[in-house]
Write a structure and sequence with these properties.
By secondary structure, this protein is mainly alpha-helical. It has helices at about 15-20, 25-30, 40-55, 65-70, 75-85, 95-110, 115-125, 135-150, 155-170. It folds into two domains: about 1-90; about 95-173, no CATH class. About 65% of the residues lie in helices and about 0% in strands.
Length: about 170
């Protein structure tokens, strides 16, 4: 269901997500898609997994190694975008895993894709909010503040402004 067509489209990933949500036992089939050597299938599988996790985060928890080790290290921008949306949904991260995720996602700020950079910035903020990560949260706030003025793209600057508004509770800025 995820094969075929143009790499710039999501294909039938929403349909796959709906099927898995209706029958969670199918998640193992989706997870096997990440072993594919076809970039298109992996990107669409990442989209489907993100859609599933957004509605049912508990289904993602057993697959944290997949997200932290396999997906987080993939080069494709669509996969990285979805990793940034998946990582904060992992509620069972140890402190070491959270630090690993923060390090990985911070490196995404150098990605070629402005979309990945914008999602990475938001992911960093969400990951650094965990108890015990106050130093990381301060460092991430400094990164966000720098991106407001000096972000590499309009998308990154806009996301940084949004994050500052959320932090300050200012809906006008």
């Amino acid at each position: 269901m995820l094969a075929g067509g143009d790499l710039r489209t999501l294909g039938r990933s929403a349909e796959v997500a709906a099927k898995v949500l209706a029958q969670p036992s199918l998640l193992s089939e989706l997870v096997r898609c990440f072993e594919s050597d076809q970039e298109l299938i992996v990107a669409r599988a990442a989209d489907a997994l993100e859609k599933i996790a957004a509605q049912e985060p508990r289904l993602l928890q057993p697959h944290k190694r997949l997200v932290l080790e396999r997906l987080a290290n993939m080069e494709h921008w669509v996969v990285r975008e979805h990793v940034c949306q998946l990582l904060p949904l992992l509620t069972n991260l140890s402190a070491a895993e959270r630090r690993q995720a923060l390090t990985t996602v911070e490196a995404y700020l150098d990605d070629q894709s402005s979309v990945v950079k914008a999602f990475a910035l938001e992911c960093l903020v969400r990951l650094s909010k965990a108890p015990g990560f106050e130093n990381d949260a301060r460092r991430v706030q400094q990164i966000v503040d720098r991106c407001v003025e000096h972000g590499a793209s309009a998308a990154l600057r806009a996301r940084a402004r949004k994050l500052v508004r959320q932090r300050t509770g200012d809906s006008k800025n």
